[in-house]
Batch of 2 targets.
Target 1
Amino acid sequence: MATLSARATDDSLSRLADDPRSAPGLAWIAKNSSWVTDQQIRLSEIPAPEFGEAARGQALAALFAASGLKVRTDDTGNVIGELTGSDPGVVLLVAHLDTVFPAGTDVHVKRDGSRLVGPGISDNAAGLSALVGLARAFSESRVRTRKTIALVGDVGEEGEGNLRGVRALVNEYGSRLSAVIAVDGPSTDYITTQGIASRRFEVTVTGPGGHSWSDFGEPNPITALARGIVKFSAIRVPDDPRSSFNFGVIDGGTSVNSIPARASVKVDLRSEDENELARLAKALQEAMAAGVKEESASSSRGGDGDYTTSGELHLDFVSIGLRPAGKLPADSPLLAAFRGVDSYLGNRSRLERSSTDANIPHSRGRGRRRRTRRRLAHPRRVVRPHRPRPRPEAPLPRRPRARRPRPLTFAPPACPC
Ligand SMILES: [Zn+2]
């Protein structure tokens, strides 16, 4: 068995690629791209919605095992295949298993010439198949490394997964980690070196509910949310630091002739700067509270004043996601390694910012360790601007019991997540 080591420079990468001991692995990759594509299709056709990655994970584990990796699935659901090194250090390559597509989506992949079309075929069956190909190339070359190479299909990257998979991996390997690389999507024209911070909330308004005719004048949670959404959407969002917001899912109500007893909306806030992100979060809370207040005031007047109201609205904020910001330093050996690979392959890539699995290792970079750990310890927070008060004259609740609210709209976000 050969043992190779390399420092991350253009010259050393060229020497490593030209080393005869690398030849079997590189030759295998050159000859077997169609096999890797087949695995991409196969994995993509196994549904892996948020919190439902297990079946795809099992298929990945079998592929890792067939390449001779030491395979296990951790308590979080991450599928880990290790090529054990001679030193304690670990180089971690992660590709997320989950997709944005809900259970029941037709995940069949079609070929359109050389183009593959299917939900999640790029994001992230492409990343998973890259790890599978890498595992086979290591197996074929019989190369042994000093550091352990850990190839992982991780869970919880999309939507409300809140990066739970990569958080668990970074916590588990801890100080043994030498580098973390997130392989996400098929592109070779950019390298994400900056993690965009994001915060996600579910904002819920509850009220007395009622009948659209006989209870007209009661405050309406959907109307209250709409008032808050309009108010927040009017605020200024800076270009620098670049920031964004999105009301992604709204849910509530049971029938067209019922005043809803509950309505909620899920909101995604992002910024290059965590202070700006905190400002947006505060503005969101204020806007939604103002929307509730306005709806309550409006309904208590009861149209021309002949109506009386007996209920009040309550507002809940629940944090459903928190991704810390972070940045790979310009002088990072890892970035130099990518530049060296680009140079060797004749590839050109630009540096990008995004919100991915890499946010977690990015945030653990120099000068940010303590702050991030503290935040990770408290990922969920509830804010209640309006507390319910007992009202002796309140009527019996009229909210429907048996029927679950159905989404009013759903729009799967585009990659990157
Ligand atoms: Zn992705």
Target 2
Amino acid sequence: MSSEQSSPIHLKRAGLKATSPRMRILEVFRTSARRHLSAEDVYRILLTQDEDAGLSTVYRVLNQLVQADILLRHTFESDHAVFELNEGGHHDHLICVACGRVEEFRDENIEQRQRQVAADNAFVLREHMLVLYGVCPECRAGAADETHVSAALPTQA
Ligand SMILES: [Zn+2]
Ligand SMILES: [Zn+2]
């Protein structure tokens, strides 16, 4: 909220500010260690780069990039969309229901079965989406040690 950090870094990045939000947001996806990012994730990453794009701008640009087929949008949970670069290759997803972590997988047997199911029903397959919901290894480890973890966590507002 407060922009007290009028540091030289801020000025140095003034050139970046002149470039379009679209380029900056694409750069976030290209450089992020995580492939799947929500609008809030993108917004927060931009903030750490001294780029306050505004959440509504982030939403608008993400939608433009989806319409341009540059990004893919997945709605893994009813109210929470994540975005990833559209790199052409198909993959499916595993979602951790505890922490929201997203993993990718591709299984040729599943792919082939799905094509066969479509063919058996005289469908021409256009696309499909397979999402497996579960609990990731870190969250499983945390649950096994729950009392310790919750005691160590700071109180959340
Ligand atoms: Zn997890
Ligand atoms: Zn993915």
